Amino acid sequence: MTAAWTPQRISFSRNDGLPKYVAIARAITLAITDGELTAGQTLPSQKELAESFGVTVMTVRQAIQLLTEQELLTTEQGKGTYVRGAQFRLPLGRLASLAAEVEASGRTLSTEVLGFAPIEISPIEQQRMGLDAPEAVELIRLRFVDGVPFILQTSLLPPALAAALDPAALAERSLYEMLETTHGIRVERASETVQATSLDAESARLLGRRAGEPALLSSRLTFSADGVPVTDDRALTAGDAVVVSAERHANHGGMSLQLSSDAEALADSSLPFMRGGR
Predict the structure, then answer these.
(1) What distance in Å separates the CA atoms of residue 48 and residue 7, rounded to the nearest whole number?
(2) How far is CA 29 from the centre of its chain?
(3) pTM for this one?
(4) Is the dihedral of CA 67, 143, 274, 196 positive or negative?
(5) Average pLDDT, the chain
(6) Are the CB atoms for 67 and 33 separated by under 8 Å?
(7) Which residue in 35, 56, 132, 217 has its CB near the most CB atoms, within 10 A?
(8) Banded model confidence at residue 278, pLDDT cuts 50, 70, 90
(9) Signal peptide location in the record (predicted)?
(10) How far apart are CA 209 and CA 111, in angstroms?
(11) CA 112, CA 97: separation in Å to the nearest integer?
């Protein structure tokens, strides 16, 4: 458990022209950059901060408002004020596993496998995956970046591929890696869409958020080198946790903007995000 942060009283100068709330905001910012305050850590109450800094609650409120606007702090009713985690930049370009993307960013990825079970899939999913029967194995994973819940991910796999996979090993290894080592399947390309949505109650609970919060939903259909669909993924992340980026060139195809009604690869919104047992 993270120890409570106790700020040091500030000696305010009357000659530097710096408002007290700005000096307090700088002190809190320094505590964040020095690691005294970490992502997700709750600050003392405004009354306690006012007493520690020797100022009024209104002055503390101004400092918190400034840091909220700078996206360093977040205040939620009933939860208090806490340090915001830095947004993870997810590039759209080279096809790679989330593990590879996070490793390249210098952060740490960990995974909790929540479910691995056969389910009945919709006609849309059956068609997307080119399966003979409306059956697939649903893999459900909660992915953490630097120990903070980041992505809730479901992956539909053809039963023949899933049969040889060890779900426990997927807590330590990427799905792409296991497909290659277990089946000799190397992923070659993927069709992916990203759309705005909101968190349902169960997804919000797992991600440590509130139901109804804005979120991003990624739907990715991944193909092997011979053009066969091998996994149909959906990934859900809080809207303020990630920035999607892409490098674009005038003479090259790539990222495109479509109306949701025109995009063929969007997830089937009539289905719950998770369906298998957990």
Answers:
(1) 10
(2) 24
(3) 0.63
(4) positive
(5) 80
(6) no
(7) 217
(8) low
(9) none
(10) 18
(11) 16
Q: Domains plus CATH for the chain? A: 20-83 (1.10.10.10), 88-262 (3.40.1410.10)
Q: Assess contact for 23 and 10: CB atoms under 8 A.
A: yes
Query: In the predicted model, is pLDDT for residue 143 greater than 70?
Result: yes
Q: What is the DSSP string of the chain?
A: -PPPP-PPPP---SSS---HHHHHHHHHHHHHHTTSS-TTPBPPPHHHHHHHHTS-HHHHHHHHHHHHHTTSEEEETTTEEEEPPPPEEEE-SS---HHHHHHHTT--EEEEEEEEEEEE--HHHHHHHT-SSSEEEEEEEEEEETTEEEEEEEEEE-HHHHTT--GGGGGTS-HHHHHHHHH---EEEEEEEEEEEE--HHHHHHHT--TT-EEEEEEEEEEETTS-EEEEEEEEEETTSEEEE----TTS-------GGG-TT---TTS-S--S--
Residue 78, pLDDT score:
77
